[in-house]
Amino acid sequence: MSNALMLQDLFFFLPETCLLVTGVILLLLDPFLPKEKKSFLGGISVMGILASALATLCLWKENAPLFGHLYRLDPYALFFKLIFLGTTLFTFLVSFRYLSLTRLPQGEYFALILFATTGMMVMAAGMDLLSIYLGLEVMAISSYALVGFLKKERASLEGALKYFLLGAFNSGIILYGIALLYGTWGTTHLSEILNGLSRGEATSKMFLVGVAMLIAGFAFKIAAFPFHMWAPDVYEGSPPPVAGFISVGSKAASFAALLRLFLFAFKPLFAEWQGFFVFLAMMTMTVGNLLAISQVDLKRMLAYSSIAHAGYLLIGLAVGTPFGISGMLFYFVAYALMNLGAFAMIVLLAQENFRAESIEDFKGLAKAHPVWALCFLIFLLSLAGIPPSAGFIGKFYLFAGAVQSGLYGLALVAVLNSVVALSYYFRIVRNMYMMEERSSLAPSRSWTLRLSLILLAFFTLLAGLYPVPLLETVRQAGALFL
């Protein structure tokens, strides 16, 4: 590869480079800054995210292979990169308040999130099984440390240890699956695997076992049935901003890789694996919703809710049509907005001796602080799929895609699950609007946190009331699978 070509590839890798450089700068500056100047690190982190987002937008119309076809710059990858960057930006804005409350080390915290985001971006753009695996490991290792960031709390350490042990075992499964695919085709490149399958070359049992191991590995990452049981403990032990970040970013990155694998590289075998994903979607959404009903801890409830939403997202993968894929990509944006908003509400009400992590802690919020109750109501309506929210539009496209493909049973199960979900989301609404006020409710005055909540609620409504620009964007991003 010529030097000129390598320099061009590095230019197209600019969004990831901005994050890596910013993370390294934070780690270098952190030991030398006095405590009263630590907040300066948050400003540097936000600047790094904005620089990466600007670079991503400038590359929007590019479509080119990079680094010897190991990496792909296309609208699909760039769309997911913007989701990751938006998720990280809101996580930072929410975290300023939480870090000042808990006095956690800021340099390490922001750097780990930036490194995890870089891994997510590599996963979304990877065109080789090994490059996808590299991104997954960068994301995973950073996430393990973030989950255990509350070092003095047993729940945080327990969640981090479980996540690390299960995640390490899961990484081994994925890597072994990659090895089996390499043993079958002599390559780990997705385009070459696609070409072999398109020519009708016979698939061996070794290949099928390798695909099954990849499915199991990524099912763990998206918290799909039956690999979902880690999520409640991890979310409960994590700092609330980290729980929101992992619930959105890790899930979106894993789905981005799954789509490239099964709707691109393995597309000629669509008929063989479609039924399995239909079953996986049904079981995941059903188990997640049923287990969420009995939860009293808000973070655990949101964990089971995220499992159910993974089931809804799997509908797009099971359908495999442009309509279903567009609905899936739209739902990623909606899910990011409403889920980040729900976790930000915990930080809004948290105090030194009051965590606001129980559903009961939100009693009477509407009477005392109607604006913040309204924001939470918008997030809950969107999570439940009630119009005119972004969640409703996303579910409509996903369910309509299932009907359009003749998967009437899947659509029926999804609709019934949405009805079940209303029961636990509206428990929070009842507590906010129909219960007596708690004397301990004192929302934070952090302007970054308040601005984040208002923006998240606004965009959640805007995407539901006027979804046309976003739908056009997701159609361009999903053109890869046409």
Describe the 3D structure.
The protein is mainly α and 482 residues long. The chain has a domain at 268-482. It is built from 20 helices and 2 strands. It has helices at 3-12, 14-29, 39-58, 75-102, 106-125, 129-147, 154-185, 190-198, 205-221, 230-237, 240-265, 270-292, 298-319, 322-349, 365-368, 370-384, 390-404, 408-434, 447-465, 468-477; strands at 64-66, 71-73. Strands 1-2 form a two-stranded antiparallel sheet. A hairpin with a 4-residue loop joins β1 (64-66) and β2 (71-73). α6 packs antiparallel against α7 and α17 packs antiparallel against α18 (408-434). It is globular, with a radius of gyration of 21 Å. The two termini are 31 Å apart. The mean pLDDT is 87.
Rg over CA atoms, rounded to whole Å, is: 21 Å
Helix content: over 70%
Query: Based on the structure, what is the oligomeric state of the protein chains?
Result: single chain
SSE series: HHHEEHHHHHHHHHHHHHHHHH
Distance between the termini: 31 Å
Shape: globular
Side-by-side strand order of the widest sheet: 1-2
Measured by DSSP, the beta-strand proportion falls in under 5%
Number of helices: 20
- Largest sheet data: 2 strands, antiparallel
Give the rounded overall mean pLDDT. Answer: 87
By helix and strand content, what is the structural category?
mainly alpha
Low-confidence stretches: none
Number of strands: 2
